[in-house]
Every structure is written in structure tokens, then in C-alpha cells.
Backbone:
């Protein structure tokens, strides 16, 4: 079992990755613990995949260092690959391959693999024995990719957007399989731009954008830390906020279309006043969050702040000294 | 060892499942052999008794080229495109064993293919002469030369470009390589070009091994050996896994 003192499975220290003049990752640091699910959360292009691919040994850091299970992913690649499982964002299997064949082939690479048939059952592909990769749906391909990542009993699993673009049932199944990895002490690092995924699945969320960490903590911590003295609710867009504000005695703003923020503590009488006004106007109430924000609020605020601070993603300006 | 065997078996299975690849590998060389042995349209070098005596060595060279170059390039090119190679990079299989499995697959398919060609040629009355055992090192050198070219294309170009180029190169090297059209029938400069191509070198070497009365192929052996050394080196140097 994993003790609280066990060292981190993944350590990222001041990681910087550059592609030519473009900075994909800019001084990123975080850790991921065994037996925990860590989500690297950020919008597309935030630097998630670059970070994960550095941890998998596909690319070298431009600066900073990374360690996975105490190993250098490039220098100690041979030792490391026996202990990690990888799920790429797409592809990875020959198009003419059937699920059982792919799993048995991958099982042959490892010393003590999981029984392929058991894994097929686990990811719900036991009935797809005769379909080839090219004839499988996106969700089926993702489930097979997940099984391939797990067949070698990895200590660390890297899952790049594991549920992107798949149907709800498949998503549920994948999330259940990932959640079960905790009990086996696996350190899971998943990337996602889906807030719901991070909120539901992760023990630890690292929010990144433009290659820097914006926030790092458990979902609860992140939501508590940014908890403000306000009430948020969803209703049809374009409400008369000044009329509502006058009625309840607090400033009301429409943060985004259909999302309202009331600058007031969430007292029961305030909540009652808001709902009473909506009732008078015969307006539906989509949701109402007093105090506790959803991760989405935190995320949108943080990424919006980051965008405001960096008006243009300025590439490094190299000074040419003339002599 | 377990991983290498499983990988080789898997490569073989995927090749056999791929219909168009089998067509290029097996059906086309056999068809050319039978057709041009029976139909007297192609010229043959002077002093050759039967058409099949000239065609059989050339068709074996063609089988080496289609298998080691065309099929390997297209298969590997698409695997690279679909990130199969990238994914394998994160497994304990390793690149060394991956290459060995590919070579193993090519060799096994080639043994079957050449056996079919030999049987068909003998049925057509082929009378092999020369020093047939020398054909074995010649075929091995050919696998290195064409395999190197195939992997060079697959590892540097996009999948669809590899597909088009491999097929174009196949036709060009077939026509200029003395495989079914003798060099003696080509204008001088084309024959000269043909003889420095890997296809030309291999077909000359195989003619000298398998047909009595063929020209000796000292310089062709050298040309073939140079291709067999340089093409894999270039593939190793320029191959990109993603």
C-alpha cells in the first residue's frame, strides 16, 4: 500500500519546452503521487501534451528536469518503459489489428502482463473480437488504447485526453477503470480540457495555460480557495440586472451570457430575494451556487486572468549584439 | 525472445491480411513470369534458349524489390502515420527488436514467394545454370538495399506520399532494371543508368548466378553491395518515428 511518505511518482521541475521560437511550456513544476489521479487541466494548446510527452521520453526538456519513478525518461528509457503505460490521444494500433491480437502482442512485451481476456472484459470489448481497429468506433478505440496502457501492470499511467470525443457510456466505463487504478497504487496522470472530468475523477488538479501552472491542489481546495462573497446563478441571458440589483440591494452583473453574479454574501434571505424576483418575472432558474463554486468558475477565471496578463504569447526576443 | 517472436508473428499476420500487399508481392511477379514466358512480345538477349531462362532470375529480383521495398515502405509508412511506431516507442519492445521483426517478416514472405516463382518457372521449363547458391547472398544483399530504401521513404515522408512514391519507383526500377527487358535492348545511356540502379545490379547478379552463359557480374556485385550498405545507413540516419 502507498504510505503518505512515499516519494512522488512524477516530478516536474521548472520544465521549459520550446519549439523554435515558440514556448510551449514555461517553467512548469508539479508532482504526482502513487495511488492518486492527477489531472493536467487546461485549454487546447496549454502545453499538456508537450509535458506528458516529455515525461514519456518522446522529447527532451529545453530546460528544467523531469523524473518518473526516479528515472530520467530519456537516459533511463529502457528501464522506464517497462513500468509505464501510455495512452496516446489517437492512433497507436495497426489498422488491421483486432483487439485480442493487439492485447496479446503488447502482453508479450512485459514480464508479468495482465491476462488479455480479462482486460478485454474489463473495457467492454469482449464482444468485439473480430473487428479490426479501422472498423472500431472512436470510443472502442479509446477503450482498447486504455487496455493496452494497462496490460503491463504499470506503476505510472499517462492518459492523454482519455475520454475526448466519446459517448457518455464509454466515458463512464473509462472513468470507472481509471478510478480503480488508485487502489493498485498506480500514479495516473491524465490530461483533459474537460472540467467535469477533472472534477469527477481527479484527486489532484494542476491547471495550466500558456505553459505555466495557474493553480494546483485538490478539486475541493481549488474551489474553496477562490470562493468569493458572491452568489452565482444561471437564468436566461439579457435580464435587467439593474432592476434586480435595486430590488435586492446588491450589485448584479452578467458574467457571461446567462451567468449572473450577485456581489453579496449568500445569506438565506439574499437567495430568497433573488428567487422571488425570478418568480415574479416568471423566469426559469438554471442553477444557483451560493459560495461554493464549480471548478469551471475557477478555471474560467484563472485562464481569463492569464490571458489578460499575457496580451500576446510573446516568443522569446533574441537580442543580437553587434560588435 | 518472446516479444520478438510475437512481433514477427504479428507483422506476418498483418501482411497476409493485407490483400493489395499480397497482390503486389506474389501475384504480379508470377503473372509477369507466366505471361511473358508464354507470349512472345518481349525481346530476350541473344543466345538464350528459352524465354523463362532469362525471365526467372529477373522475376526473383522483382520479388525482392516488391517485398523489401514497396510492401515494407507502404506498411511502415502507414504505421508511422497512425502513430503505431510512436506507441511502440513507449513499450519495452525497443527499436532494435522492431526492426528485426520487420526483417524477419520480409525474409519469411520472400522465401515463400521465391519458392512459388521457382516452382512456376520449373513448370515452364526453366533450366537454371550458373552457380545457384550465390543467389542466396545476392538476395540477402537485395533485401538490405531495397529494405533500406523502403524504410528511408517510410521514415521521412507522409504515408500517402510514401504510397505513391513506392509504386512509382517500383515501375521505374522494374523497367530500367533489366528484370524483364534486357539491357541490350535499351539505348546506351538508359542501360548505363539501369546498371547502377539497385534493381539493375540485382538482376544482373541473379542472371549471372542462375543462367549459364550470362555475363559475369563483378561490377554489379559491387554496385549491389554499395546500395546494401548505404541505403540502410541512410534509413537509420534520417528515419523519424513520428
Residues:
Amino acid at each position: 500500500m502507498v504510505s503518505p511518505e512515499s516519494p512522488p511518482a512524477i516530478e516536474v521541475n521548472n520544465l521549459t519546452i520550446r519549439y523554435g521560437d515558440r514556448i510551449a511550456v514555461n517553467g512548469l513544476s508539479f508532482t504526482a503521487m502513487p495511488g492518486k489521479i492527477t489531472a493536467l487541466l487546461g485549454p487546447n494548446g496549454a502545453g499538456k501534451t508537450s509535458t506528458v510527452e516529455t515525461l514519456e521520453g518522446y522529447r527532451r526538456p529545453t530546460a528544467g528536469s523531469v523524473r518518473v519513478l526516479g528515472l530520467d525518461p530519456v537516459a533511463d528509457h529502457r528501464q522506464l518503459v517497462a513500468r509505464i503505460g501510455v495512452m496516446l490521444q489517437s492512433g497507436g494500433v495497426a489498422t488491421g489489428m483486432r483487439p485480442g491480437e493487439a492485447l496479446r502482442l503488447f502482453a508479450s512485451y512485459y514480464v508479468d502482463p495482465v491476462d488479455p481476456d480479462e482486460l478485454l472484459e474489463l473495457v467492454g470489448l469482449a464482444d468485439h473480437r473480430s473487428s479490426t481497429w479501422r472498423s472500431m468506433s472512436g470510443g472502442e478505440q479509446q477503450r482498447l488504447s486504455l487496455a493496452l496502457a494497462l496490460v503491463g501492470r504499470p506503476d505510472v499511467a499517462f492518459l492523454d485526453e482519455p475520454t475526448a470525443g466519446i459517448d457518455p457510456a464509454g466515458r463512464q466505463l473509462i472513468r470507472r477503470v481509471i478510478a480503480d487504478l488508485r487502489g493498485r497504487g498506480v500514479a495516473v496522470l491524465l490530461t483533459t480540457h474537460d472540467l467535469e472530468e477533472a472534477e469527477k475523477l481527479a484527486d489532484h488538479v494542476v491547471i495550466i495555460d500558456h505553459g505555466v501552472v495557474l493553480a494546483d491542489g485538490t478539486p475541493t481546495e481549488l474551489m474553496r480557495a477562490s470562493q468569493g462573497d458572491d452568489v452565482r446563478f444561471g437564468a436566461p441571458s439579457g435580464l435587467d440586472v439593474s432592476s434586480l440589483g435595486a430590488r435586492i440591494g446588491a450589485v448584479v452583473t452578467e458574467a457571461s451570457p446567462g451567468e449572473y453574479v450577485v456581489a453579496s454574501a449568500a445569506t438565506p434571505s439574499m437567495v430568497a430575494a433573488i428567487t422571488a424576483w425570478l418568480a415574479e418575472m416568471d423566469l426559469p432558474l438554471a442553477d444557483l451556487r451560493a459560495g461554493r463554486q464549480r471548478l469551471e468558475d475557477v478555471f474560467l477565471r484563472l485562464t481569463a486572468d492569464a490571458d489578460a496578463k499575457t496580451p500576446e504569447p510573446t516568443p522569446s526576443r533574441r537580442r543580437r549584439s553587434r560588435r | 525472445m518472446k516479444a520478438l517472436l510475437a512481433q514477427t508473428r504479428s507483422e506476418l499476420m498483418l501482411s497476409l491480411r493485407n490483400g493489395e500487399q499480397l497482390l503486389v508481392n506474389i501475384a504480379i511477379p508470377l503473372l509477369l513470369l507466366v505471361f511473358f514466358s508464354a507470349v512472345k512480345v518481349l525481346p530476350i538477349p541473344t543466345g538464350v534458349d528459352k524465354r523463362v531462362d532469362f525471365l526467372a532470375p529477373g522475376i526473383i529480383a522483382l520479388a525482392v524489390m516488391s517485398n523489401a521495398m514497396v510492401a515494407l515502405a507502404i506498411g511502415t509508412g502507414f504505421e508511422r502515420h497512425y502513430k503505431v511506431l510512436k506507441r511502440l516507442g513507449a513499450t519495452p519492445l525497443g527499436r532494435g527488436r522492431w526492426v528485426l521483426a520487420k526483417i524477419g517478416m520480409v525474409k519469411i514472405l520472400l522465401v515463400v514467394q521465391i519458392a512459388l516463382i521457382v516452382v512456376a518457372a520449373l513448370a515452364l521449363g526453366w533450366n537454371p545454370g550458373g552457380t545457384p547458391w550465390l543467389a542466396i547472398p545476392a538476395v540477402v544483399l537485395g533485401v538490405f538495399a531495397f529494405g533500406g530504401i523502403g524504410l528511408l521513404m517510410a521514415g521521412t515522408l507522409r504515408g500517402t506520399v510514401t504510397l505513391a512514391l513506392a509504386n512509382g519507383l517500383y515501375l521505374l526500377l522494374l523497367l530500367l532494371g533489366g528484370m524483364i527487358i534486357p539491357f541490350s535492348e535499351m539505348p546506351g545511356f538508359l542501360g548505363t543508368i539501369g546498371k547502377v540502379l539497385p534493381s539493375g545490379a540485382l538482376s544482373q547478379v541473379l542472371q549471372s548466378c542462375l543462367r549459364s552463359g550470362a555475363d559475369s557480374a563483378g561490377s554489379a556485385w559491387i554496385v549491389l553491395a554499395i546500395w546494401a550498405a548505404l541505403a540502410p545507413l541512410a534509413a537509420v540516419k534520417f528515419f523519424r518515428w513520428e
The first strand of chain A starts at residue 10 and ends at 19.
